[in-house]
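2 proteins. here.
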Amino acid sequence: MSGGIVVFAYSEVGHACLTYLLDRGEKIAALFTHEDSSDERQWFSSCAALAKSRGVPVYTVTPKEGDTVERVIREIAPDLIFSFYYRLMIPERILHLARLGAYNMHGSLLPRYRGRAPLNWAIINGEKETGVTLHVMVKQADAGDVIDMEAVEIGPEETAGEVAKRIPAAAVRIVARQIDALKAGTAVRHKQDESKATYFGIRKPEDGRIDWGQSARRVVDLVRAVAAPFPGAYTSAGGRKLMVWSARMAEGSGRPGEVISLRPLRVATGAGAVEIVRFGFEGESDTGASAAVLAALGIGDILGEAQ
């Protein structure tokens, strides 16, 4: 077996792009993906299950685990390698095994927001748009020549999860526009402007802690950025972890973290105030306002003091 396309893919973008290539009749010689973990809140479709249903060989071994990946791909001698939201860096020696190049779909408008969790970071930073970029894979993360990109609007009240639902379709449109040129080796490349490059690192659940000393706008944007299906923003109330699933700008002032109203629940920040719309102690449902939280709070209490 030789030629065809090797795909590294995961998440909803990976599933959408792989589906498009399979439906188009492309020869997918192998899929490299991650184990579908029962420990993870998996809100996206399984690339492994899709590939298996279409007769595509599936490998969950990673590029870090010896030479298995390199051996398999060397035997395939693919025309193209695609990475669609695969979570690991692919070593340069493997990228060179594709006759017509290796290409990654990144979740931002490069060169801005290189690195991990670009959509979450964009919302945290108050951006009004994000997007996806298909680029050449090189040794440095997200630094290769751009093939194509498409913007995706971020609404002023949208969460990352809501915006994420529109990302797969944008990624598929890029693949559809470029697949023939990539297979012919004629796709046009555009160098990235390094002077405009920004890089952001991986986000951990603990990065969702609310800093009430920041402005109300920053607090609301953090909540939007990490709301379900992501781990969520949080603070503390009475020594317990208080999850904040939805918040909006509100009138009012006070000390940072001070409860200035209970119904609705409003909290002062370093500049302005926020209304916490959906909330609950850790372990409670994220569907609305928690009676237990409201019973435990009083006007003048300071959230976050016991963190």
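next one coming up
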Amino acid sequence: MVTVLYRQRHGFDVRIFTREHGPAHVHVFRGEKSVKVNLNPMRFSENKGFNNRELKRIRELLNDHMALIISEWDRLDPEKR
């Protein structure tokens, strides 16, 4: 697992699991809450505890750092995209 963004705005951690599979996606955590986010197009799945306000903040955070996130996804395994 690689933490791409650590304790960012509102305390979210954004991670990529190194043995994952496509399509490109990340997992966002804060405390006991988590959500899987497909990146293109951005879509939430497997939400465990985040409310709509928090999901909006997660979307904004990911949009602000999308170039870095995609770069890390590609670095870990270009065949995943």
